[in-house]
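quick one, 657 residues, struct below
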Amino acid sequence: MHHTALRFLLLPLLTLLLAACASIGSPDGGRYDEEPPKVLYCTPGDKSVGSDKKKISIWFDEYIKLENANEKVTISPPQMEAPNVRADGKRVRIDLFDDLLPNTTYTVDFSDAITDNNEGNPLGLYTYSFSTGSTIDTMEVSGVVLNAQDLEPIKGILVGLYPADSTFADSLFRTKALPRVGRTNGSGEFSVKGLAHGRYRAFALQDVDGDYTFSQKNERIAFDTVSFATSQRPDLRPDTVWVDTVRYEKIRMVPYIHYYPDDLVLLAFQEDGQPRHLLKQERLTAEKMSFYFTAPSEELPVIEGLNFDAASLFCEASAKRDTVTYWIPDTTVAKLDTLSLRITYLDTDTLERLVPRTDTLDMAARTTYTRQQQDRQKKMEEWLKDREKQARKSKKPLPEEENPYEFTWLEASVKPSGSIDPNQNATFTFSEPIARVDTTKLHFCRKVDSTLVEVPYLFLPDEVNPRVYTLYAEWEPKATYQLTCDSLAFTGIMGHTAKSLKLDFRVRSLDEYGTLFLRLSHIGLEEGDTAYVELLNKSDKAVAKVQVVDGRADFFYLKPAEYYLRLFVDRNGNGIWDTGCYDELRQPEAVYYFPKPLTVKAKWDMEQAWNVQGIRRVEQKPKAITKQKPDKKKNPKDRNRERDEQRAREREKNKRG
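---
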């Protein structure tokens, strides 16, 4: 009896306990936890001095977690042996393995990596620090890192400071690890903390090998030859006081210490002369083989055939000679399943010098010459069978039609086709390099009423690509032109010829275009400098480029659209943007953006003034074409506010009902 009664008494209590344990969320009507975790204490203490501990614990008032600690947590001075930073229940544990430096302030910048474990409420920007000496350094500087060529914010790049009295030579950035570092966020913003008061120079480094020095050509860098002094002063910032989750009571001004400078701008770049190596080689078809290099070269590779005569090869190289294709017009060579060869090319050695290197390779065709012929024969037979099937189905003979697989024709793509702008030219790209053009089989005419009248033209090869030709003509607006190419007008190096072509070009009316006249000031040109303005589309790609002359840059024949503007200062007069060089202390050529889009309309002449340096560089590039977006801001979850607003709407609805 006693045990039975006890069982009946305990059963309801056990049921309630299980229900409470199963309910990990907020009970109906209760408040959600929107409070961020709070730091209770640290060992060693935050901002403690005279510390020699390499094991650090930071305790919180609730269970916490670290998000993307490898990306967000930055320890300064940087550690050569990666520290162990991890969440452990209600604390963060940090194990340092490098020897601690004497009289040095250490900072652990967590950014926004710390959140509570259940709701994900962020602690916010948090930094822990301690000193191995008798004082702790508290100065800090901040700013932004942008890509020098297009002013894109750079996320995740290291920013470091050297004392201004350090020797500014290649031995500094190349041999001495950055003594204090920070890391940029999604907006390219950085903060370097724990500084002693003094003068510094700022550097940025996309550290590939983790040695905190500029040790490889493929590391993106930035440097500033101008030094700055740290400073601080009391300041105020606004803070909102809320009555509840919906209404605020007031905005109060909260005192804090403002550290300077807070507006550093570093323009990052990658130097020319990247390490050059043979990346890969391939022979996709029997008639050609390609070699891909990691960087350009002024010299072409030298091929020595081991089982064929390399003199029969035809070389096609890209503009920068980082891709080289060898065509094989000799069918006796193309029929070889494997070509054995020696290739000699310029390669970067361990001392970063370009030196000749020779590799012996066997180039096997992915699809052999025999297999290609068999596949073509099979397609010819399938085409004939399909024709016979169609004839039986229609019960009458089909019209004569050429078997498309009987011959391999030289193909050509033409851009633009159909309509053309008055300032455009038509580009022909052929399926193989051109061996011969018979201009007597080309006829270029203008349509006048119903008559074709021959007019002057030029049909010239591209200076780099042997597969490209350009048709040049004086295009009259609203006129129609016709280019007729007889068969055998074009012959490729493989012996293939093109079918006859008839192409019509309609020149657009001037009423379809707008014009943009730019008046530029404060470009900052020095003697010998020129400048170019690029017209950009919504993808930040240049669609037109004009040189600045006497402070003007004019764009004609613009199609109605929304455009953006970018200007670069051309210091060496080569007409293209050039990067910088650390060893020469040469900065990349300056780039500026017009801060808003310009809408060009048909039949409109638009005039726009542009003070090129009128606003700060970090504010110039329009957000609409900035690809690197800011990190999503972490705020406490607004579920209480959302629920209060929903209940207020329901009460209002009930009143009206």
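Helices lie at 2-22, 69-72, 170-175, 331-334, 369-394, 639-656.
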